[in-house]
Amino acid sequence: MKILLLFSLLSSVIIYSQRRNYFPDSDKTPNCNLIKKGNFTRNEKGNNSFKVKVRKNRMTEIFGKNDIIVESKLKMPNKCKFETEIIKIKTKLKDDFIYIGKKTKYEIVETGKNSIIYEYWCNEGRNICTEILQKE
Fold first, then answer.
1. At 8, phi and psi to the nearest 5?
2. Is residue 77 a part of any domain in this protein?
3. How many domains are there within the chain?
4. Which of 8, 84, 124, 135 sits a CA distance of 20 to 30 A from 107?
5. Global pTM?
6. For residue 129, is it within any domain?
């Protein structure tokens, strides 16, 4: 029994130590209220900028200089998890893929004073992608 207790204690310490810490001033417990309403951005050079606007039950993602605008319905099943369903896509690019109706589940994993980090399954469910966004 003591060996089992020791093993479970060591496992929990090892798992916690593997947690990603993207920035040193992160909250110990994520402040998931940040995502409820606001504008967030990931600025990169060139046309690689990415913006997310959240209002009530809507999420709008803007890629580049309005090259692609994705509007989605937003549901928050709990405080740190949210789901979207694409309802409209505006694009300047030619794309043969049909994404209307696509659903994605996100989880807020870390927050800071003006930052939010969320993860979601991407590449058709083969990978977990991470977005690090700054609140505007």
1. -65, -35
2. yes
3. 1
4. 8
5. 0.73
6. yes
